Amino acid sequence: MRRGRLWRGRIPRAALIVVAALTTAVVVAAPASAQEPAPPGRYVAMGDSYTAGPLVPIQTGKPVGCLRSTNNYPALVAKGLAFTTSQDVSCSGATTANLAGPQGTGLGTNAPQLDALGPDVSLVTLGIGGNDIGFVSIIVDCATRSPVRPSGAACHDHYTAGGTDELAARIDATAPKIAAALAAITQRAPQARVLLVGYPALLPDTGAGCFPVVPFSAGDVAYLRGVEKQLNTMLADQAAAAGVGYVDTYTPSIGHDMCADHGTRWIEGLIPTSPAAPAHPNAAGMRGMADAVLGQPVPSSNVA
């Protein structure tokens, strides 16, 4: 098989607007090598902004509001596996509801992502679930609350008030939605290898973080790190239950989080220093995610 192998004080309003806008652009597949047969069937990429690649150059496709990049991981996977036919229907802000239903973006409507599937599809990647638990609102809320108590854990205290962890409950409530999505994919593309793609590390895997550059207190860094790991564990569990593959993008991204140096980080902070949406993968992050997908047993031009 081939392999393609913030600053002391308040968060600027513009950064939070960009992040919030993500709640409310088509990959060109590289031709197969002349010396090799084309891979079987089609590749379809589905998912949210961590798949689409908002603000990563070059933005293209329709609807414009999906903010897809020609250098997102689906584009790199399609090239790495020499698919001659691929379709990226991912869209920034997507939830599991937008797999079976249309998604309005403010700049056009994205058709139900499942509509791209069919019996001729040999590979499907899906990256979804973050918006179901309220990823953007969590980031904005914690970036507002945490700096008020830099030696405490205001974000953690907010979401666990009353003795119940609200974010853990959201993750639990999302699990059956992921299960239903995977069932729908395997039904519509029965011949396809299906890969559920997890989320890369947003924050350092250990330690207190990098307040105030990333404006989360040490206590909230630990809490939010745990929330992301819970989300990824749920996704991995649902993939196993459905009999599909799970792509761990967290492990290879350790050390490349928002606190990493420019040039090393894969995830931009709330004030990006490379072209990407705040708290989202940049081009290097997309390359890392693509490598994680390409490291899986997937259909390629060398597979009969």
Rg from Cα: 19 Å
Total count of helical runs of at least 4 residues: 10
CATH superfamily: SGNH hydrolase
Which class in CATH terms? Alpha Beta
Number of distinct beta strands: 9
Oligomer state equals single chain
| Uncertain segments | 1-10, 16-21, 23-39
Helix/strand structural class: alpha/beta
Helicity range: 25-40%
Strand content: 5-15%
CATH topology grouping: Rossmann fold
Q: Biggest β-sheet, characterized?
A: 5 strands, parallel
The structural domain count equals: 1
Corresponding CATH architecture? 3-Layer(aba) Sandwich
* Whole-number mean pLDDT: 89
> How widely separated are the two ends?
11 Å
- The best one-word shape is globular
Report what the structure shows.
The chain is globular and about 55 Å long. The longest helix has 25 residues, at 218-242. With 304 residues, it is of the alpha/beta class. The model is unreliable at 1-10, 16-21 and 23-39 (pLDDT under 50). Helix 3 crosses helix 10 (283-294) and helix 7 packs parallel to helix 8 (218-242). It has a single domain, classed as Rossmann fold (3-Layer(aba) Sandwich). The chain has a five-stranded parallel sheet with strand order 4-1-7-8-9, sandwiched between helices. A two-stranded antiparallel sheet has the order 2-3. It has a two-stranded antiparallel ribbon with strand order 5-6. Helix content is 35%, strand content 11%. Helix 8 (218-242) links the parallel strand 8 and strand 9.
